[in-house]
Amino acid sequence: MLPVMPHHERERFLAEPRIGVLGVTDTRGDRAPLLVPVWYHYEPGGEVVVQTGRDTVKARMLRAAGRFSLCAQDESRPYRYVSVEGPITSVADPVDPALREAMARRYLDPDEASAYLDATADQLKDDITFRMRPQHWRTANFAAFAAEFAENGQAEPAGSEG
Question: Which key words tag this protein in UniProt (predicted)?
C-alpha cells in the first residue's frame, strides 16, 4: 500500500510552486493521453488553474474532454507526489493579466518574472485560462517508508509506481 498524504498535507503540497504535468484525453485517434509540463496555480480548497494558447492542441483537447488531470512531484528523496483529476469548471478568454503575472511570479524570481512578462506581453491576447475542480486525488509520501528503511540500516527505496 502506498504511503498516502493526509488531506491538509496534499493541499499544501499542491499549492507549492512545482511544475505540473497536465494530462488530457487525446482525441486524435488511437493515441495515449496528451501529457505536457505546465505552470499552474492552486490554493488549498480551490481550483487548479492552467493557461495555454487559445488555438493549441492542448486547448482543443481540454475543451473536448471537459476534464483533465495534473500531477506534481518532488523529485528529491524521499519522493512525494500529488495527482488530481476533475472537471473543467470554467474557461476564461482572454487571460486575466493579474493572474498571468501572479503565475509568472510564482515560478520566477522578481527580475526574471518582469522580463518574462515584458517579453511575452502579446500572449495576453492569445492565451486562455482553464479552471478544474479537483474531484479525485492520488498521493504518496515515502518519508515514513524511507525512515523505516534507514532505521533498519537498509538502503532507501528508489520509489514506487502509484
Answer: Oxidoreductase
Distance CA 106, CA 90 (A): 22
- Buried/exposed 20-44: b ≥16 CB within 10 Å, e otherwise: bbbbbbbeeeeeeebeeebbbbbee
pLDDT for 43-90, tens place per residue? 999 999 999 999 999 999 999 999 999 999 998 888 899 999 999 999
pTM of the model: 0.87
In whole angstroms, give the CA distance from residue 130 to residue 63: 9
Which domains are delineated in the chain? 7-149 (2.30.110.10)
Q: How many residues does the chain have?
A: 162
**Which cell numbers in the block locate residue 114?**
518582469
In the chain, which ranges are continuous DSSP H helix?
7-15, 57-65, 97-107, 110-119, 143-151
Q: Are 97 and 41 in contact (CB under 8 A)?
A: no
pLDDT in tens, 8-47: 999 999 999 999 999 999 988 889 999 999 999 999 999 9
